[in-house]
Write a structure and sequence with these properties.
By secondary structure, the protein is of the alpha/beta class. The protein is built from 15 helices and twelve strands. Strands 1-7-6-5-4-2-3 form a seven-stranded mixed beta sheet, sandwiched between helices. Bound molecules: pyridoxal-5'-phosphate (PLP).
C-alpha cells in the first residue's frame, strides 16, 4: 500500500482566526452577504467559499470533512448527523423508484432494515448476496441495478469484502461501489482500492469516545456537492446535519485515531490468538483460520493491524449473556452496543444490533445466538485482561478447567 492515510491527516494544519492551533468553532446558523447578487449566486449553486445556512455547510463541518477526505483519500467529504444519515442520503441520492441494489447480506442492522423494509415504500428493491462470492454478486446485477453496497469488514460476522474485485465488477456495469468503512478506518482505504463512495459512522472508532453520533460521506466533489444541492440534494433536503460544536470535538478526537487503531488492533490480535489456542470459537480477520484473512492482508495498511473487532461463539444465548454480565461485573468492559470506545464493549448481535434480520436469515448467514461481538478496548496490559476474561469463562464452564 503506498497510500499513507495517517500522513494525510497528520499534515493537515489549521489556523484559528486568532492564530489558535484549533480552528474557531462556527457558532452561526446563518451568514451575511455583502451583496444580494452573491446570495442569489449561492442559491444557484455557486457556493465555493460562501456560507449560506448551516444545514448546507458550516466552517466547522468543512474542517472535519477535510480531515475525513484526507483519511480516505477522496476529493472531499460531507459530514452528517449520524452514520445512518450518511448511508440513507447516499442511497436515496442514487436510487429512484423501480431501481435495484446489490448488497452484502451481512451488514449493519439499520442499513439492512432501511434497504429491506423502508425502501419498499419507494419501490427500490435490494438483492442480498454473500459478498465474498463474486459470481453471486455478478449474477444479482440487472439493468436496473444502481449500486453495489457493502462493508469492508462486515458487521457482525467480519466477512472481508474484496474491494478491488468488487470495483472491477461495478466499473464493468458502470455503477458505483459504495463501501461502509466504519469497522476499519486507516486499516483499509476503500477509495484507494477502487470504491467510488466511502461512508462512515463517526460514532465508532473515528470519534472513539462514545459521546456522540455522527457520520460522513467521502467521495468526489461532484457527488458530495450534489448531496448538498439546495434543490436536489438528499443531504440538504433530508436534513441530517451535524452540529458545529460536535464537528469540532470529533476533529480533535481524530488526531489520535492512528494511535488508537494500532492499540485496538494489537489488543484484539492478542486476545484472538490466545482464545484460539484455548480452543474457543473466535473469529478475527488477523487469524489465519479466518476465511477473509488473505484478502484482508492483501488490501490492508499493515501498520494499523486487523482492527479492533472480534467475535466469540460461546455456543448459546444463555452462556453468552452470562459471560457478558460477568465480564461487566469484573470491570472488563461494558455490555453495550457500539464500537471504538477505550473500554471493551460487548453485545450479542443476534438479539441486539442485528435483531432486524429475521431469525431464519441470521441462521443461513451463520449468525448464531451464542455469538458475542467484542470491540476491544485500549487496555494497557492486555495479558492481564486476557487472563481475567478467561477466568470468567472458566467459572461459567465455557472454558474447561
Ligand atoms: C453504527 C454503524 C452504522 C450506523 O451509524 P450511526 O452513527 O449509529 O447512525 C452504520 N454502519 C456500521 C458498520 C455501523 O457499525
Amino acid at each position: 500500500m503506498d497510500y499513507k492515510a495517517a500522513d494525510g491527516l497528520q499534515d493537515l494544519q489549521y489556523f484559528g482566526e486568532y492564530g489558535g492551533v484549533n480552528p474557531s468553532i462556527s457558532d452561526s446558523s446563518t451568514y451575511t452577504f455583502l451583496s444580494a447578487k452573491t446570495m442569489f449566486d449561492t442559491f444557484e449553486g455557486n457556493t465555493e467559499g460562501c456560507y449560506l445556512y448551516s444545514r448546507h455547510s458550516s466552517p466547522s463541518n468543512l474542517y472535519l470533512g477535510e480531515a475525513l477526505a484526507a483519511l480516505e483519500g477522496t476529493e472531499t467529504a460531507n459530514v452528517t448527523a449520524s452514520g445512518m444519515g450518511a448511508i440513507t442520503a447516499v442511497i436515496l441520492q442514487i436510487c429512484s423508484a423501480g431501481d435495484h441494489l446489490v448488497c452484502s447480506r451481512t451488514i449493519y442492522g439499520g442499513t439492512y432494515a432501511f434497504l429491506k423494509n423502508f425502501l419498499k415504500k419507494f419501490e427500490v428493491a435490494t438483492t442480498f448476496v454473500d459478498i465474498t462470492d463474486l459470481d453471486a454478486v455478478a449474477g444479482a446485477i440487472n439493468p436496473r441495478t444502481k449500486m453495489i453496497y457493502c462493508e469492508s469488514v462486515s458487521n457482525p460476522l467480519l466477512e472481508i469484502a474484496d474491494i478491488k474485485a468488487l470495483s472491477h465488477l461495478s466499473k464493468k456495469h458502470a455503477i458505483p461501489l459504495v463501501v461502509d468503512n466504519t469497522f476499519s478506518p486507516l486499516s483499509i482505504a476503500p477509495a484507494k482500492l477502487g470504491a467510488d463512495i466511502v461512508v462512515h459512522s463517526l460514532t465508532k472508532f473515528i470519534n472513539g469516545s462514545s459521546d456522540c453520533v455522527a457520520g460522513a460521506v467521502c467521495g468526489s466533489k461532484e457527488f458530495c456537492l450534489g448531496l448538498k444541492d439546495v434543490n436536489q440534494g438528499a443531504g440538504m433536503l433530508l436534513g441530517s446535519t451535524l452540529d458545529s460544536l460536535r464537528a469540532a470535538s470529533i476533529l480533535k478526537n481524530m488526531r489520535t485515531l492512528h494511535i488508537r487503531v494500532k492499540k485496538h488492533s494489537e489488543n484484539a490480535l492478542y486476545l484472538a490468538k490466545d482464545f484460539e489456542k484455548e480452543g474457543l470459537r473466535v473469529m478475527y480477520p488477523g487469524l489465519r483460520s479466518h476465511p477473509g484473512h488473505r484478502i484482508m492482508e492483501r488490501q490492508m495498511n499493515k501498520e494499523y493491524g486487523f482492527g479492533g473487532i472480534m467475535t466469540l461463539d460461546v455456543g448459546g444465548v444463555n452462556r453468552a449473556n452470562a459471560l457478558m454480565e460477568r465480564m461487566q461485573k469484573e470491570d472488563l468492559g461494558y455490555l453495550a452496543v457500539s464500537l471504538g470506545f477505550y473500554k471493551t464493549l460487548f453485545s450479542a448481535p443476534g438479539t441486539s444490533t442485528s435483531s432486524e434480520i429475521p431469525l431464519e436469515e441470521q441462521k443461513s448467514m451463520g449468525l448464531t445466538d451464542g455469538l458475542i461481538r467484542f470491540s476491544i478496548g485500549l487496555d494497557n496490559d492486555i495479558h492481564r485482561t486476557c487472563e481475567r476474561m478467561k477466568d470468567c469463562m472458566t467459572k461459567l464452564g465455557i472454558l474447561g478447567g
